[in-house]
Specification:
By secondary structure, this protein is an alpha+beta fold. 55% of the residues lie in helices and 29% in strands. It is built from two helices and two strands.
Length: 87
């Protein structure tokens, strides 16, 4: 079977707190030659789509106090767990 076109779609929903959310998505397509690695192209497109969604969400998330506090809490929880593991 010859694969000629590969399409990848990545969607993510970000919780902004106060019953607000942001949903972003990115779809990418690539035409490939029969000798190209379809799996490699798929992984590349996936990583590009994921990075695009992350970049688009960054300004909104940085403004969201809820997300920033959530990240701090997770960091503290991870640090506390690591300290307990080292005990």
């Amino acid at each position: 079977m010859d694969i000629k076109t590969i399409a990848v779609t990545y969607h993510r929903k970000f919780n902004l707190g106060d019953y607000e959310s942001l949903e972003l998505g990115c779809s990418l397509w690539a035409q490939i030659d029969p000798e190209e690695d379809a799996e490699g192209v798929t992984q590349f497109l996936y990583q590009q789509a994921k990075a695009s969604v992350k970049e688009a969400a960054r300004p909104v998330i940085q403004e969201s106090i809820y997300q920033m506090n959530k990240a701090r809490m997770q960091k503290q929880s991870t640090k506390a767990q690591t300290e307990m593991d080292d005990f």
